[in-house]
Amino acid sequence: MTQINDAVGVVIPMFNAEATIGATLASVSRQTYQALDIIVVDDGSTDRSPSIVAAYAAKDRRIRLLRQANSGVAAARNFGAASTCATFLAFIDADDLWAPAKIARQMQALHNGGPSVGLVYCWPAHVDEDGRVTSLHHRPTAEGHVLRDMCRSNFVGNGSSMLLRRSAYDLAGHFDASLRARRAQGCEDLLMCFRIAENFEFRVVPQFLVGYRLTNNNMSSDVMQMLRSCDIVLTEFRQKYPQFATELDAHLIDMAQWLAVRALICGQLSAAWAMMKVIFVLEPRLAVYRLPEMLELYCRARLVPPWVKARIRRLMSKSAEFRPPYAETSW
After folding, report:
1. Nearest CA-CA partner of 194 in 213, 173, 208
2. Distance between CA 240 and CA 79 in Å, rounded?
3. For residue 120, which of 22, 106, 200, 201 is within the disulfide window of CB 3.0 to 4.6 Å?
């Protein structure tokens, strides 16, 4: 039986995150659930990130800084998880944020669900580089036995949302560090969710307890790598569960569409075209339907004169005060 005061190991993989790690650690330290073992795994940073963590650790004894040679996010998470004896595990990327009640509400959901529940997730608020909320549209409700739902979409959304039983993490075989060796980092979270869904139930806390930062510099902006990663994961489960092939194909199409948009916004025209080819192979009518929209996105992102973009940025900065900072919002 889950006890409400059981320790939770919080693992934060970090690589050159000096701009954001302070805010991330502050959001973790402010958790109303106090029984935390907070492990920051420095994955070979060359900036001031380790010194920032050391300063926070001096003020909060629950924070530890571990170091490893650069080995990727999966290896860093596994190293951190192996370094704590906590029965429960939570992961947060070094640029994301947690609402103060995040862990407390997820632990309550685990307690209420009993030992059959291996993972509790919550809703993400998308935030920008300044930590201001840009979107609250992702509100999944999938619970219970969710393997088929996972085949259709990555409704959990990101690694910073998950709270796991260690037994579920161990049975899943930990995060797959081999994806990095295959030049396919990015979907380690999705693979973990798939493997847990094979053996455990899920629960959701329907509140925006994670501030998920989307920028042009984080891992999901490397669209070709993300597509390789997603394809490897979905192929594994297509082979294991051929009865869900339709859902898995639709999942890949959705991912390719999302990555095509990201590529266009980042000016990666060849990558966006590669995404459209994937869509065309799997669903030709959809590719033709989306092509005008993709061209419009590219024109807005890449062909608008710089002086127009500068004026738009000034207008947006003036209106930014109307978008609430995630850290100052009650969730």
Report:
1. 173
2. 28
3. 106
